[in-house]
Amino acid sequence: MFKMDSHIHSEYSPDSNSKIDDILKTANERNIDIIAISDHNTVDGTSEVMQKTRNTDILAIPSIEISSSKGHILGFGCEENIPRDLEPADTIDRIHDLGGLAIIPHPYCFYRHGLLCKSDYRDLKIDAIETKNARFIVGYCNRKGKNLSKKESIPGLGASDAHYWKFVGDCYSLIECEKDIDSVLKAIKKGKVKAQGKGTSNILLSKYLFERNILKKFD
User: Fold this and answer.
1) What integer pLDDT is reported at residue 218 of this predicted model?
2) Helix 20-29 vs helix 44-52: crossing angle, to nearest 10
3) Burial of 62 per CB tally in 10 Å (0-12, 13-18, 19+)
4) Distance in angstroms (rounded) separating the CA atoms of residues 170 and 26
């Protein structure tokens, strides 16, 4: 079994300042074996992390978080950019055409563009959903995602959704696979994953957001 954090943001996302080197440092410290830099609407972070993890103990999976017209979708396994603002079904088709998985992050979190707040999962070819996203306040959205995962046998993942490198690995998945990209994708499809971890401290998150959005204006 390996530990995987499938949803991490780097400085290539407009709402993160995290350097790839700092992300990798935290992943090593927390014994995360597999990571994915899932930046908003760009694979630039994926390109950098895959170069930097060659000949290391960490496996990097290409990924991108795409802003569809009705919410966010991870193109997990995708090394190419996918246009934003397409209809969800079209976005998912593009992901599958590139050999990736369509994973729905924070599916029921309306203030973070959760796709299933506006779309019916039965109309979409979803491969997996996040059932334990570390960025929550009371946990209602995670519970709703977990219930859907159980009801419809949709593989459920844990992920930090870290926009600050110190939060990498707060939530993660245990995955039963070989340590290569193809095996990881197949294991997720087969549901050989289990969401683990804890929520990111709301105190630390508030401190980070204050420093990033308020204090930096006075630098």
Assistant:
1) 46
2) 50
3) buried
4) 10
